[in-house]
Design goal:
Blueprint lengths: L9 H18 L3 E2 L2 E4 L2 E4 L5 E2 L10 H12 L1 H19 L2 H13 L3 H19 L9 H10 L4 H17 L8 H8 L7 H28 L25 H24 L3 H18 L4 H13 L2 H19 L3 H9 L7 H18 L3 H19 L3 H15 L7 H10 L3 H29 L3
Antiparallel strand pairs: 1-4, 2-3
Helix pairs in contact: 1-13, 2-13, 3-11, 3-12, 3-13, 4-6, 4-10, 5-7, 5-9, 6-7, 7-9, 7-17, 8-16, 8-17, 9-19, 10-11, 13-18, 14-15, 15-16, 15-17, 15-19, 16-17, 17-19
Length: 458
């Protein structure tokens, strides 16, 4: 009789990783690099790693206190998710989204390949250019409804979004939060190497597109093969039936699109973040309610209901952040970084370049923040690239691929966990969908690094 492996709940997996992180703080020596300020940011100084004379011991009860600390540390994205959920509930109560989606389904319902292509391309371009990620969360519910109307499941819907933005980050041409930060820290001319990255985008995007398309086609032909067929929480609402879009609903859609445009403009021009973005969605909910002549009590009830549906998502985000806090408290993050960077010193240029991709991929689990990873790892990788005979531009390329591609799979990525939580997709099921793609991308990334070394990318 075959033994069926049952994957634990995502919250159980995340807490297990918190425990594992705590065990690492007991087994690994505490250590750190010296740091210095560079353009207002704290960066590590290569060659200064030292083991602390006294180990940093964390009490056993920190396994419990780190959870509320993780929630507090991630409060920005948690409250942002709540506000998005509330605003979307108000918008949906007007019927505008259902009416608009019904029209789209009537127009493009027989062209799922086009929906996947255009959707992934939009998410990839947004991430590649202005570093969008959290901003996509409000679009999850809309994308799910579109996909279900085309007989695809929630995994396919999330695949369009997450694979799109993961490819965008991994091959970013000018992402200000990853590429430009890494180039600044590495002492590389800003936006340099853009031609190579533009050429990279095409094959990497094709790999991601074909992966999502194959899965979507399989589900359309046999819905029983869905990875979440037996998960009640991951079943989306019924697609909207065709209905007329009245003047008020049309006005609601226009205001919503203007709000999303305002979000993009604010991020690009004024570096808005969670506070400003959350404020936009609060204002949007009020304006939409007024346009549709909804009572203030109904606005409040819809808003609370929408936010309440995302409590589980908020917990996942907080638990994910607790992993990083545990490692930081134990002073072993720098120990891990120092350990994994040592093998690069004893291999040739090509293998060293490939090794950088895998090391950055591993470190993304411990440091899920793109800019944070750049400030910690690039001061080490840039000098190492000098020693092994590859350009610092190649070190930057390895960083962005390791960071971008692994954003699609590491459970410490708060944005990924938020999206999965909203859709009710257990992490174990998502992992089954995404790991074959990650393997393909890492292989393609390794080949790309060898080519970059061969052509002398600068």
């Amino acid at each position: 009789m075959a033994i069926k492996l049952k994957v634990p709940h995502t919250l159980v997996l995340l807490y297990g990783m918190v425990v594992l992180a705590y065990v690492l703080t007991l087994l690994l020596p505490a250590g750190s690099f010296e740091t210095q300020l560079d353009h207002g940011h704290e960066v590590v100084i290569p060659g200064t790693y030292s083991v602390m004379e006294e180990s940093v011991s964390q009490p056993w009860w920190s396994l419990f206190t780190v959870i509320p600390r993780g929630l507090a540390s991630a409060q920005g994205i948690i409250f942002f998710v709540f506000l998005i959920g509330g605003a979307l509930a108000v918008i949906r109560a007007t019927g505008a989204l259902d009416a608009a989606l019904a029209r789209v389904l009537n127009r493009f319902g027989g062209q799922p390949a086009l929906l996947i292509l255009m959707g992934m391309l939009a998410f990839a371009i947004g991430s590649s250019t202005i570093g969008m990620a959290e901003e996509y969360i409000p679009l999850v519910a809309i994308l799910i409804t579109l996909c279900v109307g085309m007989r695809m499941d929630t995994v396919a819907a999330v695949g369009i979004m997450v694979v799109g933005y993961g490819i965008g980050y991994g091959t970013a041409v000018m992402n200000p939060f990853t590429v430009l930060v890494a180039q600044e820290v590495a002492g590389v001319q800003p936006v340099s190497g853009i031609e190579f990255r533009l050429l990279m985008f095409i094959p990497f995007f094709a790999i991601g597109y074909l992966h999502v398309l194959r899965y979507a086609k399989r589900i359309r032909e046999n819905p029983a093969q869905s990875l979440v067929a037996d998960i009640a929480e991951a079943q989306p609402p019924e697609p909207p039936k065709s209905k007329d879009l009245d003047a008020r609903q049309f006005s609601v859609l226009v205001v919503t699109l203007l709000a999303l445009g305002l979000v993009v403009w604010g991020i690009k021009v004024h570096q808005w973040y969670f506070v400003e973005l959350g404020a936009v969605f609060v204002a949007l909910a009020i304006i939409v309610g007024l346009i549709s002549r909804m009572s203030f009590d109904d606005m409040a009830n819809n808003f609370i209901s929408g936010a309440g549906e995302l409590i589980g998502t908020a917990l996942l985000i907080g638990f994910a952040r607790a992993i990083e806090i545990t490692l930081s408290d134990g002073q072993v993050l720098h120990t891990i970084i120092n350990g994994v960077s040592q093998p690069l010193m004893v291999v040739g240029a090509e293998l060293s370049a490939v090794g950088m991709v895998f090391i950055q991929s591993l470190l993304n689990f411990f440091i899920p923040s793109g800019s944070g990873q750049a400030y910690v790892t690039m001061p080490l990788m840039a000098p190492i690239s000098d020693l092994v005979g590859v350009s610092r531009q190649i070190a930057v390329l390895a960083y962005q691929m390791g960071d971008g591609f692994m954003n699609m799979v590491v459970p410490t990525n708060a944005v990924l966990m938020a999206i999965l939580g909203i859709c009710g997709i257990p992490y174990g099921r998502w992992f089954r969908f995404i790991w074959p793609l990650i393997v393909q991308l890492l292989i393609a990334g390794s080949i790309t690094m060898v080519i970059a070394v061969a052509v002398g990318l600068q």
